[in-house]
Amino acid sequence: MPGRHVSRVRALYRLILQLHRVLPPDLKALGDQYVKDEFRRHKAVGSDEAQRFLQEWEMYAAVLWQQANENRQNSTEKACFGISLPEEKLNDFRDEQIGQLQELMQEATKPNRQFSIPESTKPKF
């Protein structure tokens, strides 16, 4: 059972990073870093929290996949990603999670990002 769980987590992690390729470069960089941090942070949680964690990220992946397909079909319109969180879902969050969400929103919406996006993927020597 633990081996199947680990492969499910890895497959989901890879899927999300793959789906991020359709995002604008600044959102991709932000999203990739957030996913890496969150998956690392939840490595050693209990099984109930791990189950909920996976369900939430699976829903995220499904929404992103759907939005990527819709954006591909409506290629003349500006790409749109994300959804609004219902209040009842926000009420389930711990204070720490609300803080992370606020930081993520501030980073995603500010004009001057705190991170840089390399122009090329070639290694620099």
From TrEMBL:
Is Membrane included in the keywords of this UniProt record?
A: no
Q: Which GO terms describe its cellular component?
A: mitochondrial intermembrane space; mitochondrial matrix
UniProt feature coiled coil, ranges: none
Q: Where in the cell is it found?
A: Mitochondrion matrix
GO biological process terms on file = mitochondrial respiratory chain complex II assembly; succinate metabolic process
UniProt keyword terms in alphabetical order? Chaperone, Mitochondrion, Transit peptide
Name where it mostly resides.
Answer: mitochondrion
Belongs to which family?
Belongs to the complex I LYR family. SDHAF3 subfamily.
Physiological role:
Plays an essential role in the assembly of succinate dehydrogenase (SDH), an enzyme complex (also referred to as respiratory complex II) that is a component of both the tricarboxylic acid (TCA) cycle and the mitochondrial electron transport chain, and which couples the oxidation of succinate to fumarate with the reduction of ubiquinone (coenzyme Q) to ubiquinol. Promotes maturation of the iron-sulfur protein subunit of the SDH catalytic dimer, protecting it from the deleterious effects of oxidants. May act together with SDHAF1.
Q: What is this protein called?
A: Succinate dehydrogenase assembly factor 3
